[in-house]
Write a structure and sequence with these properties.
Order of helices and strands: EHEEHHEEE
Distance between the termini: 9 Å
Mean pLDDT: 95
Largest sheet: 4 strands, antiparallel
Structural class: alpha+beta
CATH class: Alpha Beta
Helix content: 25-40%
Strand content: 25-35%
Number of domains: 1
Amino acid sequence: MITALVQFKLKNAITPEKAKELFAASAPKFRNVPGLVRKYYLLAEDGRTAGGVYLWETRAASEAVYTPEWRKSIEERYGTQPTITWFDSPVIVDNLTGEII
């Protein structure tokens, strides 16, 4: 498994309520994306950094989503380019399912 940490600085701070509204509007686009296991939306406590943590089956699956068009859509929506950091996730503890993967 691969974990991708996507972050972007916001020009203006947003409230958790506004973040929830923005994120909920984009969430349906991530349903049934090939290779995407799970996505968590993120907002820093100061409201100035946002992003997501994505769990992918493979890095190739993530790169199929993180295209130049995707980066452009982030910039258009939030006014800044995202940064992406990839991590190998060799072991995952899932307390919802009671599994260690």
